[in-house]
Amino acid sequence: MIALAYATDLATGQSREFALRSCVLAMRLADTAGLDVEQRRNVYHQALLRYIGCNADTHLLAAAFGDEIALRQDVARIDLGSHSELGEVFVRAFRRVFADLPPDQLAMAVQQGLTDALQVTVPILAGHCEVAQRIGMRIGLSEEMRENLGQLYERWDGHGLPRGLKGAEGRFAVRMVTLAQDAITLEEAHGFEAMTAIITKRRGGAYEPELADLFLANAQRLLKGLDQPVGRETILAIEPAPHAVLDEAACEEAYLAIADMVNMRMPFTFGHSRAVAQLADAAGRHVGLPASEVRDLRWAAYTHDIGELAVPVSTWMQPRELNIRETDAARLHPYHGERALASLGGDGSPVAQLVMRHHERLDGSGYHRCVRAPDLSPAARILAAAEAFQTAREKRPYRPALSDAAAAIKLRNEVREGSWTPRRWRLS
Ligand SMILES: [Fe+2]
Ligand SMILES: [Fe+2]
């Protein structure tokens, strides 16, 4: 769950450990409000997992608004019930998208964009709730928790999404987490005083009045230390008992859910991580890796591109090769992946170690650390090769898919160049 929370922070452009910090704040608020253990459990999961459905149909969002991560950063700070604030955010997005147009055409394009904006966004945002609920089911969340995830953008005044639930029709955990997450976002953007002023202004609109009052009366204490990163241990320690524990089969399903969540952003990556996992699993068995290493290899394959969420879909969808700035951002995705998976237990996690190396090559020509053969275990070499082979077989906006045969020739050429281990290699 911490890895998923980290992933949603990347995809929504929040600062590091936003979901974790909001979880601590929401749990402090839950304690202050005297919630029982069931309600506290709902608050805990809602804070960590609120945005797990938000990668669905991201390409549609990017097609309309360009850099969707920048859009999400803007949206997180405004009062979504205010047409003027929302209009300003949309105008800013369209100005970025149409920056190259001459002024008269720019004005017309922005106007047209505004006319269509709500028609484009409302179904996408409603879809995020459904997808979040589906992912929630796959990772074993209770029906109540899934219901919470389905109320992603509901508001106290009934002007929210997806159903416009009013007042106590909405779930309490949702109201509490929405307030806690906005408080963190707003304090970071505007400082403590401005944050409390905005929460006061939105009292009775976005937020339940009594809840806003409780927060405002205790804000200094509740937010103490939350401008600093929050560690895994802290999050595990505040989980209401009994703690959720997954067996190996449930872990497999959770990793698969992460794979699908990462790949659902764009049509051309659908199924990518599953396919890489299948290839890597078969190759790992073929060369005789122990069963536990084959399992780690498969789990690393499911999660290898989790760090891609830090790069806007609008970048990946360019119908050309990436420019220098975009390439640099894209090449950092194994770093973000490593960070996301560090939540599995620090640098020692074999899955994180593999994810971190999934674009490395034997001759040091890979990225992001550019390590060489001695630093690449058999499993790391297999994952990188499976990833490269599968990617070559998939279409990208700037090139067609290669056939299996052509992808194999490409890899064999790279073996000769020193990127890969020769094909007759076996462990035993
Ligand atoms: Fe990949
Ligand atoms: Fe990758």
Characterise this structure:
The protein is mainly α. It has two domains: 2-237, Hypothetical protein af1432 (Orthogonal Bundle); 248-417, Hypothetical protein af1432. 62% of the residues lie in helices and 0% in strands. The protein is built from 21 helices and no strands. The protein has helices at residues 2-11, 18-33, 37-49, 58-65, 68-77, 83-97, 103-138, 143-149, 172-190, 192-201, 209-223, 232-237, 248-263, 272-286, 291-303, 313-316, 324-331, 333-341, 350-356, 378-393, 404-417. α2 crosses α9 and α3 (37-49) crosses α9 (172-190). It is globular and about 65 Å long. It starts with a helix and ends in an 11-residue tail after the last helix. The site of one fe (ii) ion has 5 residues, from loops.
Radius of gyration: 23 Å
Number of helices: 21
CATH H-level name of the largest domain... which superfamily? Answer: Hypothetical protein af1432
Order of helices and strands: HHHHHHHHHHHHHHHHHHHHH
Distance between the termini: 38 Å
The average pLDDT score comes to 92
- Shape annotation: globular
- The appropriate CATH architecture of the largest domain is Orthogonal Bundle
Helical percent range? 55-70%
Ions, cofactors and other bound molecules: fe (ii) ion
- Contiguous runs where pLDDT drops below 50 for at least 5 residues: none
Structural class: mainly alpha
Strand content: under 5%
> Which CATH C-level class of the largest domain is it?
Mainly Alpha
Counting DSSP E segments of at least 2 residues, the number of strands comes to 0
Biggest sheet, open or closed, and with what strands and sense?
none
The domain count comes to 2
**CATH-assigned fold name of the largest domain:** Hypothetical protein af1432
